Amino acid sequence: MMAENNEFIREVDEDYRRDRILQIWKRYSGVIIALAVLVVVGVAGWRYWQNQQRAAAETASVQFDEANRLARDGKVAEADKAFNALEQQGPAGYRLLARFRAAAETGKREPVAGAAEFDKLADDTRLGDGLRDLARLRAALLRLDGPNPDAALTNLQGLAAGTPFRHTAREMLGLAALKKGDFEEAGRWFDQIVADPETPRNLRERIEVYAAIVAGGPVTVTEAKPEAAAPPPPITR
Question: For residues 199-232, b (16+ Cβ closer than 10 Å) or e, as one string?
Fold first, then answer.
């Protein structure tokens, strides 16, 4: 009897569930179908967008390689045109690569103009701090050998204080001090490089050479006086 009651209760419960499902379907079938269509369309749209992005990236990669080839071949005008096209129409990553490469190519021909292009990148708040610091470093390096290197030295000092590019900045500051003959200042920058546990190995090897130069100090070159001419031998007859 108990088993029959349980079976009856189960059948009633299933009938009740079916009725509830039918009621929900009749009431919300339009919404359910619309949601299902939206899901299908959304997935299809996402896959289409991924394919479009992939195709655009592949095209931009070919264009970037072609622009680099033109630059290597000395076809300046054509390379600039190719880089500008990528800056305007390429995917975000390649637009950024094109801007950096175009600034570098300009810097090879005209250091002042190239530094100005890197300044624009350094001032672009849409970029991350690392990329902006890289742009500051490249601008400073282009200005370092110019007639007014003070601004470059100031930027390098800022980059030397804990940024990812501190090693290069400290090395350039040390070399600039050596060029001025300020061996004490050069030694301070080189000491910071040695004390930094993250200094790259190849830079540590160069520091040994720099340290030897600093230890030698300034070299004073004196002009040797000519020796007095020996008196002619006496004439005998």
Answer: beeebeeebeebbebbeeeeeeeeeeeeeeeeee
- DSSP class of 190: H
> H or E stretch including 214?
helix 201-216
pLDDT by residue, tens only, the chain of 237 residues: 555 555 545 655 666 566 666 676 667 666 666 666 667 766 666 565 556 556 656 666 666 677 767 777 777 678 777 777 776 777 767 788 888 888 988 898 899 999 999 999 999 999 999 999 999 999 999 999 888 889 899 999 999 998 899 999 999 999 999 888 899 999 999 999 999 999 999 999 998 888 888 877 664 434 444 444 444 445 444
Residue labelled with tokens 């189960």 = 10
Two structure tokens written together for 13: 């419960």
- Look up residue 168 and give its DSSP letter: H
Dist. CA 131–CA 121, nearest whole Å: 8
CA atoms within 13 A on the CB side of 84: 7
State residue 146 phi and psi, 5-degree precision. -80, 180
Task: Tokens for 195, please give them.
Answer: 């004390």
pTM over 0.70: no
Per-residue tokens: 91? 């995917």
Q: Please tell me the distance from the alpha carbon of residue 85 to that of residue 94, in angstroms, as a whole number.
A: 11
